[in-house]
Amino acid sequence: MPAIPSLGGLRGRGNSRAKGVPVRVPVPLSAYVVDCAVYVGGKRLPGRWSHVEAIKEVRKRHEGFVWIGLHEPDSEQIQGIAETFGLHELAVEDALEAHQRPKLERYDDTLFLVVKTVRYVEHESPTTANEIVETGELMVFLGRDFVITVRHGNHSGLARLRRELDDDPERLQLGPSAVVHAIADHVVDHYLDVTGRIESDIDVMEAQVFAPRSQISAEQIYLMKREVLELRRAVMPLATPIQRLAEGYTRLVPDDVRSYFRDVADHLTTVSERVAAFDELLSTLVDATVAKISLQQNTDMRKITSWAAIITVPTMIAGIYGMNFDYLPELHWKFGYPLVITVILGICLLLYRIFRKNGWL
């Protein structure tokens, strides 16, 4: 019969838990790997692959490439992949952080590309929405025989894009750079879609601003301007990396793929022009709203001033006759009171007609 450990031994081994120290449970790499595939001749090889087995198969055949997709890995889990594929430690560090600007960097024989993904947040009305654009990030490592994607955010999945590429072996025959182009094209297409829907929101907001007696405030326009600024931070910095890939920045991107990147650059230019136009239009709407508010305040002040002038007449006359003097005009005349009331009403009516004719009331 096996010996039963003493209670003292159990307490000793559980001492870290007893003191409240969290016990880290190791998470396998497979929990972060969305997909790992081997492509030879543009076709995906059947079976499930680990990252080690996949790259061994490709280098044994001397053709094809590996595509690994990761979702928000931690430093421990990505370390094995970094060692296997020879990824630079600075690029790996950037891939783990989800607050990078779009950029393109070269580390030895590897390219590191960062792109921002955007998603349009559905809402009932742009005049009441608190969030319109949600952003995420995609990091791409491009090597001679591999491409590794690291994504941050729940809306930046590439499963649909991978299925489309699996059905198009001619594109995959161009190598891993074709995957990078497909990702860039996919992201920029989403930019076009989001900017189209934001344009509709801005049209609604513009109609509200110039509608009579509208209740839209400058704060709501500033909120829309903030969302456009977030979109601008995702779009504008990406122009330089895409242009460099289109101009032959590295031999990892063959000539056949560069022409595709030029098409992506053209689409990105269209998006950039739209975003710049949005920013200018929203600034104009802010100025129009402020002018409208100022005009309304001036109108209100004129009304207040008009009524104050009318009220001043009975107040002044009542103040005079409220003085404690024995000799005031018509003070002891029996028709004095009706006469004063008539004079007050007549002057007030005259002032009212004058202000009304001038548009103050």
From TrEMBL:
It holds the Pfam family CorA. GO terms for molecular function: cobalt ion binding; cobalt ion transmembrane transporter activity; magnesium ion binding; magnesium ion transmembrane transporter activity. Signal peptide: none annotated. Gene3D superfamilies: CorA soluble domain-like, Magnesium transport protein CorA, transmembrane region. The keyword Thylakoid does not apply. One of its GO terms (cellular component) is plasma membrane. It is a multi-pass membrane protein. The chain crosses the membrane at residues 304-323, 335-355. Keywords: Cell membrane, Ion transport, Magnesium, Membrane, Transmembrane, Transmembrane helix, Transport. Coiled coil: none annotated. It comes from the Bacteria. It catalyses: Mg(2+)(in) = Mg(2+)(out). It is found in: Cell membrane; Membrane. Mediates influx of magnesium ions. Alternates between open and closed states. Activated by low cytoplasmic Mg(2+) levels. Inactive when cytoplasmic Mg(2+) levels are high. Belongs to the CorA metal ion transporter (MIT) (TC 1.A.35) family. This is Magnesium transport protein CorA. It comes from Amycolatopsis iheyensis. The gene is corA.
